[in-house]
């Protein structure tokens, strides 16, 4: 298939195929539901919804508080969302409705739920419900910002009593309000197990999980309800970017793999170490203890559905709090912009830099002040008092084993990820920066002088594009998920055209 500018010259790209891997959070298989916030359409400033990445079979629905039989798709306008480490999060409460989803084939006698939660600035000292699990009769549970409540016995588990690692400021933690707010959002993991049922009649196989509030007492679908006093009657005021549900208790290693995946995606610093999707240690908290502050990184892990090519910490200190409405990771809160000035350090991968599967670059700092100091021997240099430690498995050598471009009109010289083109006859030159469009990663960038002629792009193994969606970063012209024309963009006496493959899981 051909994608073209008005024809003058032709370039061909050869890309080897790669076998895709099944994807799951932290590489842990078979989640019942795996929700992330995604746009409902093609515009990043339109409406947003939760998408179930575990097969897209579970839907988050909105149920009217005034008329419980009235339901609809749960989505919200972009203005209510917030981004953490360049990923969107939905806002709760959902105004006049309840947000819930139903698992139709399990009562969750045992399970694990791992989520990312970020209370708003004004609600960090107010208790509220994170979610309610209503499955097996008499075994309902409500997880709030400080405790887990059992619906039948009324017993409560204070999961932050000793360490203060909960979402309620002013309870057990021995830190200031400013320090507490700086360490939001956080991952919250809840695991439980009950005795199996041995009744010949079996049991109902349905579970309803309600977000940010417990179900209404008037809801006839439930035979039991929580007392409002347990939660103080408060709904969650905050953001939830991601939530994963398993129908079994995960092992400690599996749980840490899921938590590591969510933490790296959303810029969260865990108390302990980080594992990749195969359980390999990629950040040792004990060994790197002096630098275990604001840990984050860029990573590609296809089996983990983790492609974090641009990263910053969500644990910025005062006054750059990430949960503040002005603390969005994008400049002016727009996903079409670059990173916000509220972020002290942002690192990312350039388009032309290939990043192999399971490759990572993680970093953390020593927690010292960031004030700039002048070196006594040279007043032109100003250094921060804070230092960072970076840890990576990236290879230094460039990938030069493949022939990428062929042309009858140019002499092409390859160096790393850049191909230099010199036109025969008049010597006009241009360059192409390309990372192979394999798996779910890669891009092409053409940098041409304004006097440069138009050209055709022909593909071999990367085309046809019926199963491959490319986005033109400059001047997008898309029709039926296929590129019809490619236009250059005049800028600083040159034309740049960027093609980037869209990832299935984003």
UniProtKB/TrEMBL annotation:
Domain DUF8202: 254-413
Pfam family, one: DUF8202
InterPro entries recorded: DUF8202
Protein name: DUF8202 domain-containing protein
